[in-house]
Design brief:
single chain; mainly alpha
């Protein structure tokens, strides 16, 4: 069974020697910083004093989250990366950056008829995979270092579990490899530890529910047993309850998106449509929600 280092070496070797240069997250970082400097330094940028313009112009993690939930994954990844340039131990931005890269990869490969050859013929995917793996390893190291001195640190436990799951979803999804079991068990233990101390931790409940759902619906019976079992019905219940827990705007959005996704997978399209309409109200630029709702209005099965 190959480990994450093998996956990284494989991804690096897959980079073509002569392919058009893509606009990467570091390029977007430069644009973001340049925009901020330009606005701050321009006396015609607004009527505020200089300190006020600085406060209004500086991008935040909230801006990156808004881009992510509006399905603007490349921009979200670039901004999340820019936000942690001065703080490499910011696990929240590392996790968001890796999630945006993962969804960007999924979007690039979605709908391709040749699933086996889709990744091979994706010119931009190898660089994204290398960047994703570097991010995952960086975040894992930071979280594990924190947990060695503070084993019950809730934030470190959650982010370690979430980063581990992002790695597993990359392997099972875009890379189509059945590997990452060490990360899987670490994620399961970390999220269970969070929920043992705080059963109302919405993000941990959602992430843990995805484990139950994917194991139950995507793994053969023997593998399900080896992975500790799954439960799709319990996963749906947990996500539905998580969406009802009072939480901040983007935490609630994550639970709602998980509920919508699971309901679509279950072909519960009536309830999925209700959730999609709520989400579309908050994230009107999300093309995925718009396409789903357009298909529903046309009487099609998404």
């Amino acid at each position: 069974m190959s480990d994450s280092h093998t996956a990284e070496r494989h991804s690096k070797s897959a980079v073509a020697s002569e392919r058009p240069r893509r606009i990467g997250t570091r390029d977007i970082c430069c644009v973001v910083v340049a925009m901020c400097i330009g606005t701050i330094g321009n006396p015609k940028a607004g009527g505020q004093s200089s300190p006020e313009r600085v406060a209004l112009s500086r991008p935040t993690l909230t801006d990156a989250q808004s881009l992510f939930y509006n399905a603007r994954y490349e921009e979200a990844a670039g901004l999340a990366h820019a936000l942690r340039v001065s703080d490499t131990e910011d696990l929240a931005s590392v996790e968001l950056h890796s999630s945006a890269l993962l969804f960007q990869l999924k979007a690039l490969l979605q709908g391709r008829p040749d699933k086996e050859g889709a990744l091979k013929h994706c010119a931009t995917c190898p660089d994204l995979i290398v960047e994703f793996l570097a991010d995952i390893h960086r975040g894992q190291n930071v979280a594990r270092t924190t947990l060695r001195s503070s084993p019950d640190d809730e934030a470190a436990l959650f982010f370690l579990g979430k980063l581990d799951l992002n790695y597993v979803w990359l392997q099972l999804g875009p890379l189509r490899r059945k590997t990452g079991w060490d990360e899987y068990w670490e994620a399961r233990r970390s999220l269970d530890a969070v929920l043992a101390h705080n059963a109302r931790h919405v993000r941990a409940r959602v992430a843990r529910a995805w484990i139950d759902y994917i194991v139950d619906t995507k793994m053969p019976w023997g593998t399900r047993w080896l992975l500790g079992g799954g439960n799709r019905k319990q996963a749906l219940t947990d996500v539905r309850e998580a969406a009802q827990i009072e939480s901040d705007f983007f935490t609630h959005a994550e639970a709602e998106f998980a509920l919508w996704d699971m309901q679509v997978r279950e072909r519960d399209l009536a309830h999925a449509t209700d959730v999609a309409r709520r989400l579309a109200h908050d994230f009107p630029d999300n093309r995925e929600l718009a396409a789903f709702l357009e298909a529903r209005e046309a009487g099609q099965r998404p």
